[in-house]
Specification:
It contains six helices and 16 strands. The chain is an alpha/beta fold.
């Protein structure tokens, strides 16, 4: 018998403080639940997005005291939904390291945090547009991959730039994940060029559903993000997609029997070979 999951992806243009971030995203989550979603996902940076140093430091707090985290835990319990906060920017809690963590939080229908994942791969780049990103200067990368337990099976957690590292997604699928999450805040140049093709590739390679809620629009600190949230099947088909970068709710129902069917048809996850490089 097929396992069906009613999901909703929240696309946002998150403001520059956690209080404002909660006020921005909560109505969209309420809408998603009212429209029948049992599993709701938000993008990277769901509590705040702010790259100006002084304002960023003022907005940063511990996970346990962050207003958006607290508010979204309460909202998940009120609405009786599973909620993946795609990521929040919070203090890492590592002594001697002032950088923050970029952290996914999975919340159950009782409002409890059941899984955490700190983004492993940080984005350092100089773009031809003149944009310069040094995520490593402010974000402490994580070192632990996470497959979270849910009523529908394993959920593999990743964040944004992680999507470019196929080995992580393969390991998550081999570790029991049937659904991979890629909450993001892609820049517009890289989003336009690579967002969809990377997501489809990760789905095809692993025979997994890929859920990718995104930030979109022009943010208070001037950054511009791509949007175009989407849901992809284990066969690489886009079954739901936003064609814009405005705040919105995107619904999709997942038939998890498609995971087993795709992996049976192309059992690549079982065909690893040990190899060496010829010198």
């Amino acid at each position: 018998m097929s396992v069906m999951v009613k999901t909703a992806l929240i696309q946002t243009c998150t403001p520059a403080t956690s209080r404002a971030g909660l006020a921005h995203i909560a109505p969209l989550i309420r809408q998603a639940a009212a429209e029948g979603a049992e599993f709701v996902l938000t993008p990277e940076g769901s509590n705040f997005l702010e790259q100006r140093k002084g304002l960023r430091e003022a907005a940063l707090s511990d996970e346990a005291t962050d207003e958006a985290v607290i508010g979204l835990q309460a909202l998940a319990a009120e609405l009786n939904i599973w909620l993946l906060i795609g990521s929040v920017i919070v203090r890492s809690g590592i002594e001697g390291d002032d950088r923050a963590a970029n952290r996914s939080l999975l919340i159950d229908p009782q409002g409890r945090i059941t899984a955490r994942y700190d983004k492993m791969h940080v984005f350092d780049v100089d773009l031809d547009t003149g944009e310069r990103w040094r995520e490593s200067a402010v974000i402490r990368p994580g070192s632990q991959a996470v497959v979270a337990d849910t009523p529908w099976g394993g959920l593999g957690l990743t964040i944004c730039y992680d999507v470019r590292f196929a080995y992580l997604h393969r390991a998550l699928a081999q570790g029991g994940a049937s659904i991979l999450t890629v909450p993001a805040a892609f820049t517009r140049p890289t989003g336009e060029a690579h967002w969809e093709v990377l997501l489809r590739a990760r789905a095809i390679e692993t025979g997994s559903f890929v859920l990718a809620p995104a930030q979109g629009g022009t943010h208070e600190d001037g950054r511009k993000t791509w949007g175009r949230s989407m849901v992809i099947t284990p066969w690489g088909e886009v079954i739901a997609k936003l064609d814009h970068d405005q705040p919105a709710v995107l619904h999709a129902t997942l038939d998890l029997s498609r995971v087993e069917a795709a992996r049976r048809a192309i059992p690549a996850l079982t065909h690893d070979r040990v190899f060496v490089f010829e010198q």
